[in-house]
Amino acid sequence: MEKRTVATQPIGGQKPGTSGLRKKTKVFMGPHYLENFVQSIWAGIGGAAGKSFVLGGDGRYFNEQAAQVILRMAAASGAKKIIVGQNALLSTPAASHLIRKRKTDGGIIMSASHNPGGIDEDFGVKFNIANGGPAPEEVTNRMFEATKTVTSYEILETQDVDLSTLGTRDLGGMEVEVVDPVEYYAELMEELFDFQKIRDLFAGGFTMKFDAMHAVTGPYAHEILERRLGAASGTVLNGIPKPDFGGGHPDPNPIWAKPLVDLVMGPDAPDFAAASDGDGDRNMILGRGIYVTPSDSLAVLAANAQLAPGYAGGLAGVARSMPTSRAVDLVAQAKGLECFETPTGWKFFGNLLDAGRATLCGEESAGTGSDHVREKDGLWAVLLWLNILAETRVSVKELMSRHWETYGRNYYSRHDYEAVDASRAEAMMNALLGKLADLPGAKFGVGVVESADEFAYDDPIDKSRSEHQGIRIIFEGGSRIVFRLSGTGTVGATLRVYLETYESNPERIHESADAALSGIISAAEEIAGIRAATGRMQPDVKT
Ligand code: VG1
Ligand code: CO
Fold this sequence. Notes:
Blueprint: E1 2-7, E2 21-24, H1 25-29, H2 33-44, E3 52-57, H3 63-76, E4 81-89, H4 92-101, E5 106-110, E6 122-129, H5 137-147, E7 152-157, E8 167-171, E9 174-179, H6 183-192, H7 195-203, E10 208-211, H8 217-228, E11 236-237, H9 258-265, E12 272-276, E13 283-287, E14 290-292, H10 294-304, E15 317-321, H11 327-335, E16 338-342, H12 350-354, E17 360-363, E18 367-370, H13 378-392, H14 396-407, E19 409-420, H15 422-435, E20 443-444, E21 447-454, E22 457-458, E23 465-466, E24 471-475, E25 480-485, E26 493-503, H16 513-528, H17 530-534, E27 541-542
Helix pairs in contact: 2-3, 2-5, 7-13, 10-11
The chain binds alpha-D-glucose-1-phosphate-6-vanadate (VG1) and cobalt (II) ion.
The site of alpha-D-glucose-1-phosphate-6-vanadate (VG1) has 18 residues, from loops.
């Protein structure tokens, strides 16, 4: 076993985005690409020597090869120990939990999350810090700076480590411990939720489908839903992780998980259905005849979390990303809870969770989570829903109706324009920025603009400031349009347009979102000229 120092040169474009570095798999497989980035991770955290880390990924193409490279580099840089999920698999929330449980110095997660996988699709690498959460901007900025100056990296020349069997082995003086990826996570879920109540619910004939979308949550869902909670076998669909996610987009939304949506809208609908994404941190919630928007799901969970043992003492506060609908704010207001508005991306919740200011957090992009880990957590959200349904014994539809009757309804939709020409998308955003000062007071079909700005966040805990976090246009009466460019895409630019309108009249809380939002959709077009800028008549994805 020989340690080698390999000469390299900086490679452009290795700037981590909303959630780690994501590129085409073939880019990651190119000479020195992964190695440069991993060496820059070490640089960004002050070196790997003497440290311990967690390592795992969502099983997509290149997952295990990348794990072997990272292990050899960690050993060569003097890391003390790496805890790896068996076969290099770990869902993102399970990795976060493992970092916390085993008190490591952080972890490396190999995932491009909801992006498709395969040799011609996407791969990604993300570093999480010792609290289990995504590295904050200050750390990712240091990593990016290091990618611009890296001239060599350290790697061990040796055979692959066996990651298929559990146990501890040595790699050039570094300990490699291969652990069951599901065990610790399932135990944590048993602590938070009333498994007996949920078992009784299933035993009483309650039916469910969970679509793992050929991604990493399959083994977790089989163990927790079918084995520990007694859901009928066959509850978990597409439960065997595949390197290309069966050729699909492992993104749980009404477009990419359409078969599941069709099922709940059809004659054979189960009582409850859910899906998760590539790395297991997102969730989609459905009931017989109903799709629950992620923003509504966050609000319902905030309103009912105390029904689960892990949250029986109530919530310290709640937080949502800026584009997420303001439904949860209304719950917080009614319950007298602090409510925070953060930029997009889970890393901005970390400080609030660490400081005990927020217990529940969520994003409109199907991410919900709590202070049990420092990532969003797909199966956790599903289990909290199940716990609430087991306690209330009402249907998802009924629960939503009651919620809207109490709080009013925030109709919500996100329109994505994918892979558009990056310079045109940026020009559109710049033109919008130039217009903001003139918008307040302007009249559109839906009403008068109350305020318009570019969102910036001042972290109340560490006092850091994050600017350029999206453009928001707020109308009198509570309607809102948000414009952002995605930070997770790998081709061109993705424009996200977030649309929201509030309705408190109980007679009007059962409309279709498209109808309720039609005025705000036209206003967005009128203000930004989306069609001209993107060259598209319709969004590619509507969630
Ligand atoms: C998207 C979502 C954001 C989420 C991020 C990572 O980012 O909008 O809410 O935190 O993906 O999710 P962007 O920059 O493309 O809008 V995951 O499940 O892909 O790690
Ligand atoms: Co994800």
